[in-house]
Every structure is written in structure tokens, then in C-alpha cells.
Specification:
Radius of gyration: 16 Å
Helix content: over 70%
Shape: elongated
Number of domains: 1
Mean pLDDT: 85
Number of strands: 0
Order of helices and strands: HHHH
Structural class: mainly alpha
Strand content: under 5%
Bound molecules: zinc ion
Low-confidence stretches: none
Largest sheet: none
Number of helices: 4
Length: about 80
Amino acid sequence: MSLSKLEIEQLLKLIGRTADQELNCEQCLARVAEFAESQLSGKSIPAGLRTVEQHLAVCGECREEYEALWQTLNSLRGGSDV
Ligand SMILES: [Zn+2]
């Protein structure tokens, strides 16, 4: 299966548009655990979680929530980073 150039362009536009959408705090907090786990796993951040990352960059409240969650997850994993 191969995509035509036009189909690729349409896909890229779709991805671009999605990434431009901003989350509100509620939507961000709904996915922040997923984001923290993805960070801890050391994998690259899935495109779907980029908006969470963007929101955390601009919203201190959600970032506090994320950092608390991150620390909890990290200690559950027995992280040696003390
Ligand atoms: Zn927020």
C-alpha cells in the first residue's frame, strides 16, 4: 500500500490541525497520567499527547498536577533518582 502525494499532504494537514488545538485543563488532566507514563517509559511522546505537553508548558496548575503524578509513578517504579 502506498499513499499518493495528495493523500500524504492531506494527512499532514490533518495532523497539523490537531496539534494546533489547545486543551482545556479538564482535557489535559484526563490525559496527564498517560503523558507521565509515556515520559517515564522513555519512549517518544505520541502525537496524541503533544497537546498535553503544550498545555503543561503554559498552565502552572496542570504542571503541578503532572509533577506530583510523575513523582508518584517514579517512586512506584522504584526509581533510583532520589
Ligand atoms: Zn491547565
